[in-house]
């Protein structure tokens, strides 16, 4: 269980930073089920060797056996992103991505509670402009004129 700091109030304890739950969904054809299960075990082993790793679960739907799920938990968004760039993780994870479904996959945990433990509340690690800015959305205003003035703007594209 993560190391949490107790809150000053009687409410949920407040942790230092929000952990991240990463969810990857896969639609695997029947002919590949056994190979995918073995590949999933190797992916989990590669992820488990990374700093910030907390837990992982590879599962298959009881109702639709072609639907698979890999759920991992990380110390924070940085740990998850660094893990994805690790060579061993890329080597093991990349072949399975042919069956991955395109959907948001990393979620910051804002509130958590285990069956026998206390509740914890986490502050968001999202930047204040996270809902406004996306990679490639802003351009440097000076770039149009060939001058790099260091000013970014969403209005001038």
Could you explain how this protein is built, in words?
The protein is of the alpha+beta class. Strands 3-4-2-5 form a four-stranded antiparallel β-sheet. The chain has a three-stranded mixed β-sheet with strand order 1-7-6, with no helix packed on it. A two-stranded antiparallel ribbon has the order 8-9. It is built from three helices and nine strands. The termini are far apart.
Strand content: 15-25%
Q: What is the oligomer described by this structure?
A: single chain
The order of strands across the largest sheet is: 3-4-2-5
Which whole number gives the mean pLDDT?
81
Shape: globular
Biggest sheet overview: 4 strands, antiparallel
Number of extended strands: 9
The unreliable regions are 1-9, 139-145
Order of helices and strands: EEHEEHHEEEEE
Structural class: alpha+beta
Helicity range of the residues? 10-25%
Radius of gyration: 20 Å
Count of individual helical segments: 3
List the helices and strands and how they pair.
Blueprint (H helix, E strand, L loop, with lengths): L12 E2 L5 E8 L5 H16 L4 E8 L6 E8 L2 H9 L1 H7 L12 E3 L2 E3 L5 E3 L17 E2 L11 E2 L4
Parallel strand pairs: 1-7
Antiparallel strand pairs: 2-4, 2-5, 3-4, 6-7, 8-9
Give a short overview.
It contains three helices and nine strands.
Task: Name its key features.
157 residues; globular; 20% helix; 25% strand; four-stranded antiparallel beta sheet; disordered N terminus
